[in-house]
Design a protein that fits this description.
With about 290 residues, the protein is an alpha+beta fold. The protein has one domain: Jelly Rolls, CATH 2.60.120. The protein contains 6 helices and 17 strands. The radius of gyration is 21 Å and the shape is globular. The N and C termini lie far apart (about 70 Å).
């Protein structure tokens, strides 16, 4: 009887330890070396790096490391990991998951990465820099010649250069690394409301982002800064860059095609003024 009680006690202790590890595993975030494809628009291919076999991405199919995903002109895809981390892939993009880690290798193109709060975050690695996030929504753009841009829609991101130097980028801010540069330019504000209103990575999919409310809160926070005159509007000299849009536009790989209509910008916004043919101190003219 006593032996049975000892066994029962040890079993309960062991179960408690397993539950603790399971909770820790869940809270830190499981590996995102695979995700379920939830949406495919136009040409999206999956390449096996070993056999070089190419197949079409299919909704409800799995995208697994070390496979490579390639999107074509006016194409995009969305994937969701087991912990609900969302990866949205823009046009003309080439990327893969790093096996057994929460890392995306972005070779070129654009990606929106949305990590649920407390689920372990993730890292997007490019030739020029590495962006790490936790409970954050970001867009990262990379060019094959080493260009890098990160836009934080909400939350905070940590950008690490190959030399180990670190930059912190908050919601409504961006950071650009020009091709061949060893350090990025300054952290700059951008008009979040315009970027969100015209982004295919935000609105070009059937379901809204789970972080949509947080993005709206960040927009309201930025609008308050604008009303108080505490916002460094794009086009103003900031950190020695006369017009950050000139630098930013070099990274855009826009491909017009059969994309769904985007929401009409709020009247009076920079995007609305551009459509009306009037110049505006506008946000980065991206459609990523």
């Amino acid at each position: 009887m006593r032996g049975s009680l000892i066994f029962s006690k040890r079993f309960c202790q062991g179960a408690a330890v397993l539950l603790a590890f399971a909770f820790l595993y869940e809270s830190l975030g499981a590996s995102i070396d695979h995700s379920t494809i939830t949406e495919v628009v136009n040409s999206v291919k999956i390449i096996d790096p070993g056999s070089r076999h190419v197949s079409r991405a299919e909704v409800n199919g799995l995208f697994e490391a070390p496979e490579i995903m390639q999107t074509g002109v006016a194409s995009r895809s969305e994937m969701v990991a087991a912990d609900q981390t969302i990866t949205r892939v823009g046009a003309d993009t080439l990327f893969s998951f790093e096996p057994k880690s929460r890392t995306i290798n972005l070779r070129q193109g654009s990606i929106l990465f949305q990590s649920p709060s407390g689920k372990g975050g993730g890292t997007i690695q490019t030739e020029s820099a590495t962006a790490s996030v936790l409970g954050t929504t970001i867009i990262v753009v990379a060019t094959s010649d080493g260009g890098f841009k990160i836009l934080v829609l909400e939350g905070t991101a940590r950008v690490t250069m190959p030399n180990g130097k670190v930059w912190i980028v908050h919601g409504g801010q961006l950071l650009v690394v020009t091709p061949g540069a060893k350090e990025p330019g300054p952290v700059l504000d951008f008009l979040l409301s315009d970027q969100v209103a015209t982004s295919f990575l935000v609105h070009g999919f059937k379901r809204p982002l789970p972080s949509w409310e947080k993005i709206q809160q960040q927009i309201q926070k930025q609008n308050k800064k604008i009303s108080l005159g505490k916002f460094n509007a794009p086009g103003v000299v900031v950190g020695g860059i006369a017009d950050p849009n000139i630098v930013i536009d070099r990274f855009e790989r826009l491909h017009e095609g059969p994309n769904p209509p985007l929401p009409t910008p709020t009247p009076g916004s920079a995007a609305a003024k551009r459509r009306a043919g009037r110049p505006a101190g506008s946000a980065p003219g991206t459609k990523v």
